[in-house]
Design goal:
single chain, alpha/beta, 7-stranded mixed sheet, 31 helices, 40% helix
Length: 857
């Protein structure tokens, strides 16, 4: 075959035409570009973390609305190969993936198999839905179960692989307390460790800078963040002293890479690592000597490659990861200095001390050079796992115990799959199934800074009025329209957040009361806490923070006075596992890390200065304050208002300015957002297009004629309920006798009154039939469900408000039958199988909407 013919053949096999292979990221640092969701029949690559992928797989996607959760779960749970890198570090998640893989191979035929964890249904004959498979990857022998993809003998003979396996890493171990006498406190030990790590790293840099012309990269690993921060501070002082008489461009550079940092700044830090030649094969471009001080955040998930390393002693699996970040490509000779803390202990003293002894024993067992240094190459580390046998026992003692984890059962999956229920007592948080239970893990809280929040005040300055104006319904609508974006989130320990929030509140109250000496900037506007530059002044009773649950639902509002009266320990229970959205004027952020001392307002997604990350991460969302009341029409460039509320109100009650959230057309997850387009479209045209897209998807997937006809029929009638007079009037459709599926006006929610057009579409299809489908055929039942669920409802509940065709009692009976149908079909197809079918129709519907957007440009 020619090159063009080969490329065409590959594209055809991947389900692609002219488009590129979709590559998406599902991880903390990146916003999901959603390209993997566009075409369920095409191949795509998704690079993600345990939490982001795992939560979506279990119908509980972090940062995903309840309506979208079955869509992403269906696409991830079927026709997917999950390659789990570093499987030995993610044992609970590996077991979860294997359970899903195994369960989906079984046929659910009776109650016993249901209890035993079969996750597919009896209706999955003919290869539908496509299977889910998992392939763990690990170069480290140890805590993995079943078959794992590893290097084989042929791999080891490869020249580049051999160089990496034999890469020279000369390791020495030094005692922390050998030069200390008498009893010392824990605080003194930490101070001594900071000094020791600083001293060894500095000496290593001086030695290597005097020997080589290239600019060394020295990696310093610290187990505790406070140690890392102090080491960085000490190094900066030494650099400043050494180079105070020289140009700054000649000074050695110091970088801090730790967790608990806002994602926006983490992305900037990643670029800094690239700039200073510490990532991948960029070392040759390094412009000056550089120290990188890191915690466990730099042990996995980043392709660090330093020339030399200094570190404290940690559990074996972490030491292996750290050693893999120095002389990674085996092209040089690395010096590694390990500081054995010995008496430096914290929680679980005896257990940690014994583990460190085992780690040191393993390092001492490594082969030695003529000069007496241990050889810590990857090949030497791997040999410890096999020869002699007693080393395997030592590795077990030196390794952090596998956390406990719960079993995955069919009833649990069924509970998580009922995504249209806002609350459900049998639906636990999914984290233990992803990460297990680790007693050492502290509760986490996410912090988000926002410049504009859903509150308003009257010009009279009435403080109580400003608080009462923040209504729960408005809060819910605001955070549904503008949920926390990945790039603006800082996640860290709840105890740290509670202490920080208390301190910042105290400072804020001092400024309001006039007891603080906060400075004003040159234009006389005080940008510190208490300023009025956002129109709404901060007062003692001002809402300063909003607490959201994992589904972005507001659960509590905190005022300055409420926080003032609480101790940090009192705040921890209400912050644990939650998201804390704070007024940006609270400050408290430096270089992406919590900082109790800084009053400066941090950059937020509302600022125009958000930079290049603004376009890539929140480019489909803007939050603005505008004068007067906005109109509801979509802008000419495709932006539309999805939220608008008074922000500043006159004494007469008229809105002088409004808080507005806009999204680019197609960015909204709800049908209200997608029903507003740049160009109006008739209902029959939209449904015709949806049917054509469904046919294309069916052909690409190779569905048989019966299933193809079912999917097309569902697509051609999914929006029949929009023909109702209530829907047409609410969306301000043209009154020319032809119902519309797309309009250019945002809906009037009062007229809509909760009306669900899918409910009416389902009732009409059940009454009139679906393009000749046999009512007795199971395909007819499936088509009815797809119509009911094509916006994420009917799993199992669907709203009956605004239904003018049936009395309430009859509507309730119809909704009950829809819920029963969902339960029956989920039993037949399995949780992911049914969600996969739903995803096909939703993809066809969205493809038809994008087609209209393209024709409107």
């Amino acid at each position: 075959l020619s090159k063009d013919e080969t490329l065409a053949s590959v594209r055809s096999a991947l389900g692609l035409n002219r488009e590129k292979l979709p590559i998406s990221t599902l991880r903390g640092q990146h916003a999901d570009n959603r390209e993997w969701m566009v075409n369920p029949a095409a191949s795509s690559i998704i690079v993600g973390t345990v939490d982001m992928v795992g939560s979506r797989l279990l119908f509980s996607g972090y940062g995903v609305s309840r309506r979208m959760r079955p869509f992403v779960a269906g696409l991830l749970g079927c026709d997917t190969l999950v390659m789990l890198d570093e499987a030995h570090l993610a044992h609970p998640f590996e077991r979860l993936l294997r359970a899903i893989d195994k369960g989906q191979r079984l046929s659910l035929t009776d109650g016993e198999s249901r209890v035993n964890g079969a996750f597919t249904g009896a209706a999955t004959g003919g290869g539908l839905p496509p299977p889910f498979r998992t392939l763990p990857l690990s170069a480290t022998p140890g805590r993995t179960t079943g078959e794992v993809f590893r290097l084989n003998d042929d791999d080891r003979r490869n020249k580049e692989v051999r160089a990496r396996l034999d890469g020279c890493k000369n390791l020495t171990i030094e005692s922390l307390t050998s030069d200390l006498k008498g009893k010392i406190t824990f605080s003194q030990q930490k101070t001594h460790l900071v000094n020791k790590l600083t001293e060894k790293a500095w000496k290593l840099m001086e030695d290597k800078c005097s020997t080589f012309e290239n600019h060394p990269g020295i990696l310093i690993y610290c187990d505790l963040r406070e140690i890392a921060e102090k080491v960085k501070e000490n190094l900066n002082k030494k650099v400043k002293k050494k180079f105070r008489k020289q140009a700054e461009k000649d000074a050695w550079h110091v970088i801090l890479f730790v967790g608990g940092r806002r994602v926006y700044e983490r992305q900037k830090a990643a670029r800094e690592l690239q700039e200073y030649g510490l990532v991948g094969d960029t070392a040759a471009s390094r412009c000056k000597p550089v120290f990188l001080v890191a915690t466990s955040a730099g042990e996995v998930g980043v392709d660090l490659d330093a020339d030399h390393m200094v570190c404290d002693l940690v559990a074996w699996e972490r030491m292996v990861q750290r050693l893999g970040r120095v002389n990674r490509r085996g092209t040089g000779t690395a010096r590694v200095v390990v500081i054995d803390q010995e008496r430096l202990q914290g929680k679980n003293l005896d257990e940690k001390a014994e583990r460190r002894k085992s780690v040191r024993a393993l390092l001492d067992a490594l082969p030695r050079s003529k000069s007496g240094e241990c050889q810590a190459s990857p090949g030497a580390l791997a040999c410890l796992a096999y020869n002699p046998p007693d080393h395997r026992e030592k590795i077990g003692k030196a390794t952090t115990p596998v956390p406990l984890y719960p079993a995955l059962t069919r009833p649990l999956i069924d509970d998580w799959a009922m995504t249209s229920l806002e609350d459900h007592a049998g639906r636990p948080e999914v984290r233990p199934w992803l990460r297990g239970w680790d007693e050492a893990d502290e509760p986490q809280t996410s912090v988000i800074w926002r410049r504009y929040l859903p509150l308003y005040f009257r010009r009279t300055g009435d403080e109580v009025d400003a608080v009462k104006a923040t209504r729960s319904r408005s809060l819910h609508a605001f955070f549904t329209s503008a949920p926390p974006q990945t790039v603006e989130i800082l996640e860290t320990e709840t105890s740290r957040v509670a202490d920080w929030l208390k301190e910042r509140t105290t400072k804020c109250l001092e400024i309001i009361s006039g007891t603080s000496d906060a400075e004003k900037d040159n234009d006389g506007v005080d940008d510190a806490p208490g300023s009025t530059h956002l129109l709404v002044p901060l007062t003692y009773d001002s809402p300063i923070a909003f607490i959201l649950d994992s589904a972005n639902r507001p659960v509590k509002l905190l005022t300055l006075n409420e926080i003032k009266d609480k101790k940090p320990k009192d705040l921890e229970p209400i912050l644990s596992g939650k998201q804390l959205v704070v007024d940006a004027r609270l400050g408290g952020l430096t270089d992406g890390l919590l900082d109790k001392k800084t009053d400066e307002e941090p950059l937020t997604i509302e600022n125009d200065e958000w930079g290049e990350l603004h376009d890539s991460s929140v480019g489909g969302l803007t939050i603005k304050i505008e004068e007067g009341v906005p109109d509801n029409n979509a802008d000419h460039d495709g932006w539309q208002n999805v939220y608008a509320a008074p922000y500043k109100v006159s004494a007469e009650g008229e809105a002088e300015s409004s808080l507005i959230i806009r999204k680019r057309g197609g960015e909204g997850e709800g049908e209200d957002a997608r029903a507003v387009a740049r160009k109006a479209q008739r209902l029959d045209d939209h449904q015709q297009w949806a049917g054509e897209e469904a046919a294309r998807i069916a052909d690409a997937l190779g569905l048989d004629e019966k299933n193809k006809a079912m999917l097309i029929a569902a697509a051609r009638h999914h929006d029949d309920g929009k023909a109702a007079h209530r829907w047409q009037r609410a969306f301000n459709a043209k009154e020319n006798g032809e119902p519309y599926a797309k309009t250019t006006s945002s809906p009037n929610q009062q007229i809509l009154n909760g009306y669900r057009h899918e409910f009416k579409s389902t009732l009409d299809a059940q009454k009139r039939g679906l393009d000749g489908l046999n009512r007795d055929d199971p395909c007819f039942d499936l088509a009815l469900h797809l119509i009911a669920a094509h916006h994420g409802h009917a799993r199992p509940a669907i709203g009956i408000e605004g239904c003018d065709d049936l009395p309430p009692s009859a509507a309730e009976t119809a909704a009950y039958k829809i819920a029963v149908r969902f339960a029956r079909l989920q039993r037949e197809w399995g949780p992911w199988g049914l969600a996969w079918w739903e995803a096909l129709l939703r993809a066809a519907d969205q493809a038809a909407s994008r087609r209209l957007d393209k024709e409107s440009v």
